Amino acid sequence: MQRLRNRGERDREREREREMRRSSGLRAGSRRDRDRDFRRQLSIDTRPFRPASEGNPSDDPEPLPAHRQALGERLYPRVQAMQPAFASKITGMLLELSPAQLLLLLASEDSLRARVDEAMELIIAHGRENGADSILDLGLVDSSEKVQQENRKRHGSSRSVVDMDLDDTDDGDDNAPLFYQPGKRGFYTPRPGKNTEARLNCFRNIGRILGLCLLQNELCPITLNRHVIKVLLGRKVNWHDFAFFDPVMYESLRQLILASQSSDADAVFSAMDLAFAIDLCKEEGGGQVELIPNGVNIPVTPQNVYEYVRKYAEHRMLVVAEQPLHAMRKGLLDVLPKNSLEDLTAEDFRLLVNGCGEVNVQMLISFTSFNDESGENAEKLLQFKRWFWSIVEKMSMTERQDLVYFWTSSPSLPASEEGFQPMPSITIRPPDDQHLPTANTCISRLYVPLYSSKQILKQKLLLAIKTKNFGFV
């Protein structure tokens, strides 16, 4: 009996020691666990979010902390735009995620949509398991098919988003797209992939193509993010360039800096529980990275928030794509001497490489010459030219870009007259109300029959640029 009592005391002593070790490491361990769990599971048991517009949140018997309520107010309208019937429930589910994950959702529309779809899958599954009666007031009975239809429209199949993620495995040959759009659509940043030799050689060749475009006054169809251009030019990339890279996340980080100057900054940052570690999206390599050594255990405070913001922007813009950016600059310098880039700004580079995004009609008029093959008198030809430019002036910007693309094979105008090789021209063909205008993009020439009325000219011209009726004439 004595031996049993001694053994029991020893067991209790060991248990007390283990408990002390667990409690002493609780903060570091909990942060580590939270930060590592990038794909933290959503829970159907969370309570719905109640926006301030639907009543006073302070009337809630268990109100959310102020910073969580503020995050909810920012998330709610975006969730409502995707799933209006379940916006409150889904927003409440999302608010259970870590602050770092919530910042990512605020920054990335695709990440937010994926989480909203995941929440809908859980809600639908819960409804099937527990019967429709308990959630009839949410209108869930008929929504399952609606969600599936939305998924089919969005993804091109009836598979769920979860199924698609499981099938989305990395290609062993590193055949992922070379670029992605981190923020504003239409602006591209290198996607590192696995940084294989073949992939980096592709980026170097892209740099060479950009160099040739500059050398030969040609336009290039890819519009690069501002920080990419600055790297190509050998300029220093700063924090404000992040606004062009990811404007939503830039604003979130700016609000974080403003919060550090408030009277309750310490309490706000303590509640947010951010650390010097971030979760990257798939295009940037995925997984979690530390911004500084042992960053996962170093909390972000009002005192070090500036360093956190600087490291965050630097990592996503430069560190993630360091090798592709270096390869592109190398390729550019394979074609152009280094000193030829010294006087160029990022804006100059974009204008020379991408041209003028907005088609200025007056500029187009000044570039264009007319050739007459109709044999009509000068007065009729002058009237026809006025019809043509009047129609172009009233076109939308998209229609103007379509016209210039149909005419010259580029949707943009070059920055200067020298950029047109050769200059654009219009050949007026004999009267014919039946045929469409045609184009020879090799010589930037548009062939237009002398139509009998302005209305027919407009109708035929718009039809031609939509059907892309190219041809050698």
From TrEMBL:
Residues 178-473 form the HECT domain. Residues 1-22, 30-42 have a biased composition (Basic and acidic residues). The keyword Transferase applies. PROSITE patterns: HECT (PS50237), PABC (PS51309). Signal peptide: none annotated. Pfam families: HECT, MLLE. SMART domains: HECTc, PolyA. It comes from the Eukaryota. Gene3D superfamilies: c-terminal domain of poly(a) binding protein (1.10.1900.10), Hect, E3 ligase catalytic domain (3.30.2160.10). Keywords: Ligase, Transferase, Ubl conjugation pathway. One of its GO terms (molecular function) is RNA binding. Residues 51-128 form the PABC domain. PANTHER family: E3 UBIQUITIN-PROTEIN LIGASE UBR5. This is cDNA FLJ11310 fis, clone PLACE1010096, highly similar to Ubiquitin-protein ligase EDD1.
